[in-house]
From TrEMBL:
Pfam families: RNase_T. Signal peptide: none annotated. Residues 228-251 are annotated as: Disordered. It comes from Mesorhizobium liriopis. The keyword Hydrolase applies. The keyword Nucleotidyltransferase does not apply. Keywords: Exonuclease, Hydrolase, Nuclease. Gene3D superfamilies: Ribonuclease H-like superfamily/Ribonuclease H. This is Exonuclease domain-containing protein. Residues 6-179 form the Exonuclease domain. Residues 228-238 have a biased composition (Basic and acidic residues). GO terms for molecular function: exonuclease activity.
Length: 251
C-alpha cells in the first residue's frame, strides 16, 4: 500500500555490517508527513524496538551503541519485529535512511514489501554540497535544523535519536526537491562534491584537469567514478556523451 503523504525514516543498530553473519539489535523510526499545504513536516509517529539478533553482540559494536546482550535477551527476533515497522498500516511513499545501503542489507524487499528508499546521504551531496562533511551528525550541527528537540535527538548512535535527526534533514530535502527527485538521486551512486582522499583531497571536481579526472573515472569506488565521469560529461560542449575510459580489471 502506498501513502504518498508519508515517508518513514529507519535507523538500525546491529552486531555488525554484513547479514546474515550479523543481526539487528534495535530498529528506530520517525515519520515525515506532508500537510494539506504541501509542505513536509516531522510527524508525531516515532518509536524504537529492541531486537534479539540471535547471537552475542561483539564488544566492538557494544562500544558504539551501548546495547548489551541483556537488553535484547527477551526481545523479538528480526523477522517478527521488522514487518510492523517497515510496512506500517496505511503504507508509505518510501522508506528513508542516512546511507540507506546499510539499512537495505537488513531490510530486504520481502520485509519492506518492495518499498523504495531515499538515501539522505546521497541527497545531501546534491542539495548541500558545501557542507564540511556529510555524516548525519555533522549535517545536524552544520545545518542546525529548525524544530529539532535536543533531548529526543540524543544519545547518538541509538536507533530512535538517529532516525529523528535524519528525519529533520529529510523534511528539509523534501521541501527543496520533489519526492521523485530524491528517489532518483538515491538510485544513482553518490555525487561527491569534492575529492574524498589522496593528494587532491578536498578539491572540487571542477578544479581538476581532464587527465586527473580520467584517472578518477577508473577508480574502484563507484561514487568516485560516478563523480569524476559526471564532471567529464559536463565539460562536453556538443551535448554528446563524454568518451570515458574503459573500466579495466582490478588486480
Amino acid at each position: 500500500m502506498t501513502n504518498t503523504a508519508r515517508v518513514r525514516v529507519i535507523d538500525l543498530e546491529t552486531t555488525g555490517s554484513r547479514p546474515p553473519a550479523h543481526g539487528v539489535v534495535e530498529i528506530g523510526w520517525q515519520d515525515v508527513v506532508r500537510g494539506q499545504d504541501g509542505r513536509w513536516t516531522v510527524g508525531d509517529e516515532r518509536g524504537a524496538l529492541f531486537v534479539n539478533p540471535g547471537r552475542p553482540i561483539p564488544p566492538v559494536t557494544m562500544a558504539v551503541h551501548h546495547i548489551i546482550d541483556a537488553d535484547v535477551a527477551e526481545a523479538p527476533f528480526w523477522h517478527e519485529a521488522a514487518p510492523g515497522v517497515l510496512k506500517p498500516h496505511g503504507g508509505v511513499a518510501a522508506l528513508a535512511a542516512h546511507r540507506a545501503a546499510f539499512e537495505e542489507r537488513f531490510c530486504t524487499p520481502k520485509l519492506t514489501g518492495g518499498a523504495r528508499w531515499i538515501c539522505t546521504w546521497k541527497c545531501a551531496l546534491r542539495l548541500w554540497p558545501d557542507s564540511p562533511s556529510f555524516s548525519n551528525q555533522i549535517l545536524r550541527y552544520w545545518r542546525m535544523p529548525e524544530g529539532l528537540v535536543r533531548e529526543i535527538s540524543l544519545p547518538a548512535h541509538r536507533a530512535l535519536p538517529d532516525a529523528y535527526v535524519t528525519a529533520h534533514h529529510l523534511r528539509d530535502m523534501l521541501n527543496e526537491a520533489s519526492l521523485d527527485q530524491l528517489l532518483a538521486w538515491s538510485d544513482e551512486p553518490g555525487l561527491l562534491p569534492r575529492v574524498p582522499a589522496g593528494p587532491e583531497r578536498g578539491q572540487y571536481w571542477r578544479d581538476l584537469d581532464d587527465a586527473t579526472l580520467q584517472r578518477f573515472a577508473k577508480d574502484r569506488d563507484e561514487d568516485i567514478r560516478f563523480s569524476a565521469r559526471t564532471e567529464l560529461n559536463s565539460r562536453r560542449t556538443d551535448g554528446s556523451p563524454s568518451p570515458l575510459p574503459a573500466q579495466g580489471s582490478l588486480l
